[in-house]
Amino acid sequence: MAVTIKSEKEIERMREAGRLLAIVHEELGKAIRPGMTTKDIDRLGEEIIRSFGCVPNFLHYNGYPASICVSVNDEVVHGIPSKKRYLEEGDIVSLDAGLIYKGYHSDAARTHAVGQISQEAQKLIDVTRQSFFEGIRFAKAGNHLHDISNAIASYVEQFGYGIVEDLVGHGIGTHLHEEPEIPNFHQKSKGIRLQPGMTLAVEPMINMGTKDVEWLDDDWTVVTADGALSAHYENTILITEGEPEILTLPR
Q: 8-246 architecture in CATH?
């Protein structure tokens, strides 16, 4: 599949998909507290998505059994919500969510503190979030895709964190995952030239320790190989003639 350039009508639908997903994340962020289960988060997220007349795009995607990916502490991504998994004071929890509005997808992720967390955990969350913004400074028409990758990597490396290489960002539109793949680590090649109308999901996944990850027996949950904490931050963005437009942040 080639990289798609969205028409103005398609961009409007993706803007609305992004706007609604931003609300989902805001509401989930407010709800997180010690004692709730990861299934509680999933249930609430699905309720909000469906209240907008939208569909959760993760549910049954390649067999994934939930609407919100809920990943706790050393879980990097794709954690499966469970009635038996309770959030505890001091945990960090990454929520990856998406929805479909009139045939168009949005995708975004946030890592949240559960109650009071350590300074080290908060720093990991903050650096991961900032690395996204360092990357998209280069998300401009005429630049190359891997300018984004290299900017993310250069920022994160200052802190000695591991940058996950087994999972990457992606294009997005009428499909959840479209071309191109968007690495968060250094690239020797330039990658494609960015053009107005491209929509991309940029999503650094950063580990406090090693970059290496493993898959659990459920074939979904990705964890850090050394058991260290991991954080995730993602937005769907639009390449324009000027600065990139972040579609999944509150207006």
A: Alpha-Beta Complex (3.90)
